Structures are given as C-alpha cells and as structure tokens.
Amino acid sequence: MIRGKKLVVVLPAYNAGKTLERTYSEIPFDIVDQVVLVDDKSNDDTIAVANKLGISVIVLHDNNSGYGANQKSCYNKALEMNGDIIIMLHPDYQYTPKLIHSMAYLISNEVYQVVLGSRILGNGALRGGMPLYKYFFNRLLTFLQNLLIGQKLSEYHTGYRAFSAQVLKSITYNKNSNGFIFDNELLCQILYKGYYVAEITCPTKYFEDASSINFKQSVIYGLGVLINSIKYRLSKLNLIQSRLFEDN
Fold first, then answer.
1. Is the full-model pTM beyond 0.90?
2. Which residue from 43, 91, 105, 224 puts its CA 20 to 30 A from 2's CA?
3. What CATH number does residue 93 fall under?
4. Burial of 3 from C-beta contacts in 10 A (0-12 / 13-18 / 19+)
C-alpha cells in the first residue's frame, strides 16, 4: 500500500521470456501490492518464467489479439482487483521499474491522476539508442498533437504510464482499438476529460530483446495519431461526435 492506496503493476507481455525476470526483479515491492501479467499468446517461455518468478495473477489470451487488447485485459483485471493506482510497465526492460516510486507518489499524494514516463525529457531516448527516424517522427507527431489538442507534453507515445483508478473508470477504453494506437486513443480521452498529466524523465534502453514496432506499423500508428488529434479538435468544437469521447 502507498498512503492507504492499493498499487497494482500491470505487465502487458508478448514474447518477453528473455527480459521478464530482469524487469520483475527491479519492481519495488515495498509499495507494490500486486503484479498482473497478461500474456497475448506468446510463443516463447514467457509463462514459464512468470510461474518461476511467482507472479500470482496471470491472464492468458487464447489468441494473439494485439497490444491494445492486452492493455484492456491489464486494466480490467487491475480494476477488478480494486487497485487504486495502476501502473503499466512493459516487461521488455526498456523502461526502468525504479521510477514506480516517483510515479506512484504523485498520484497517491493527489498531485496528479496520470503520470507519464517521458523518454524525451532529459534526452533519454537518444542516449538510450532510439533510432533517429523514430525520434524524428516522435517529435513531429508530438508537435502536431500539442498544436491540435492544446497541450505542452514532451511526448504522447511512451508506454510507461500510471493512472488513478478513477481515471480508468471514467474512460471508455474498452471501445478503443486492439492495436498499437490504443495508447494514443487512451491519452486523448484522458486529456479530453480534462485530467492534468504529469511527466517525469525516464531513461530508456533500446536493445535486441526489447520490443519495437516495425516501420509499416509505425506509419499506420502515425496516421492514427493524426486522425485522433483531428477528432479531438473537431469534437471540442462540437463539429463531430466521436465514439472516442463518449461518456461511460
């Protein structure tokens, strides 16, 4: 518990057998109450490693349903377990679990209800080995989203995120895409609701075993980001009604 709040860390896993143990070993169990691993039909030894580590809550997908579908299962399970603070941590060891303390305290102290680990603040992305083309498109898409949405975030594309349960309960995230664009849809929904978002500097690691989307997936994701941003602006102007921004 952290200030009387239950903290659940969720791990959206797909072929994370080589990195799961390193990630899990750095989770701060002095404040983390429960870890949930959702496996999206891995074809490696992810489940065997999870069992060896003693992860007690493992959700198995019958089919490889996609990154967004994995997150839906993560958040649904965490809320079912009455988590007050839910932190998504990728089990590929790209993001350090050592930031869980900082992210959780911002929410438990009711300073913010959403916290993002930013790879851009402090230039952590380039120092960590982010490919230059990904860095360029990250900056371009973030600039365009800030312009359309009216925010000043350093990036919209990090996979390291912490939420209060109240935020997730107020968002219709189960209606979102099952693909990679889920992350961006969820963040747009959060901003549309008027929640304030904190960012903290997050060092990252790019290496062979870390998960990454390919160029084609990146292009599809980028187009989806622009579409989400336009939907956001037009919805705010009451020119369209988008299912993204429906109330529960």
1. yes
2. 91
3. 3.90.550.10
4. middle
